[in-house]
Design a protein that fits this description.
Elements (H helix, E strand, L loop, with lengths): L8 H11 L8 E3 L7 E6 L3 E6 L2 H4 L1 H12 L10 E5 L9 E5 L4 E2 L8 H16 L24 H10 L6 H13 L7 E3 L8 E4 L2 E5 L6 E3 L7 H4 L3 H9 L5 H22 L4 H27 L1
Antiparallel strand pairs: 1-2, 2-3, 3-5, 4-5, 6-8, 7-10, 8-9
Helix pairs in contact: 4-8, 5-6, 5-9, 6-9, 9-10
Amino acid sequence: MGSKLNIDAALVSRLIATQFPQWKDLAVRPVAAGGWDNRTYHLGDDMTVRLPSAASYALQIEKEHRWLPRLAPLLPLPIPVPLAMGMPADDYPWHWSVYGWIEGETAKRERIASLPQFAADLAEFLVALQRIDPAGGPAPGQHNFFRGGPLSVYDGETWRAIAALDGKIDTRAATAVWEAALAATWHGAPVWFHGDVSWGNLLVRRGRLSAVIDFGTSGVGDPSCDLAIAWTLFEGKSREAFRAGLPADEAMWARGRGWTLWKALITLAGHIDVHPVEVDKSRHVIEEVLADHTRAGRDAAAR
């Protein structure tokens, strides 16, 4: 995805001073969870500056400025709305954005009062997003790493990860999940999707879901990629609540398991000898996906 640029508060201050002098006296400081694909900084108390860290992420800027102001009024929760677009300058090669600040903390489990209620609220948000007119919206492509498109884009990468993990995970079960996901072809009409529904892109206030952020991988297509949180955050009653709130058939859930498995496999294969925390997280997600696939098969056989 390209090498990342060194971005710091001094660079942000210079960019603001030269391009938006009305804000040049506002303090610039890093956001606690500032992201990796993009770097985020506080600008005073009420704004943030968001800068892509590599060329592949810079493709998202124009999309966000065009579409987020149109999506925001139609959604039941706040989303980021850009206030200004910065230009390449001062050895920074890409466009960048100034946003209004949205209060809230990232959705770690200990901050969520009721995980089933949180899951139901998130499902309601995603349903509202899917109901927005998709006409003219951005189709899957390089700008969002083909989220919303066919899983076959990542077929080779997935098989390589499965091969690399032979003897370290249940590769036969992983193969079954992946093949089922590829076979569950999407035939629906394109709808809006977020593309990266994860705890770090969901905000919480007073224990409830309060905002959804980071629409860089959003687009119009198959929304099954938005189901991954069913296995990365939810389980048991919360997963049931999430599923009950979404108009997703068995084929979409199979593709959702596929998206989730792909990401967990490549993460595990890439970190297995160097990052034990990521290894444990990825193993857990893989186990959840494989178990859920088995349950789905049993349920289908029983019907």
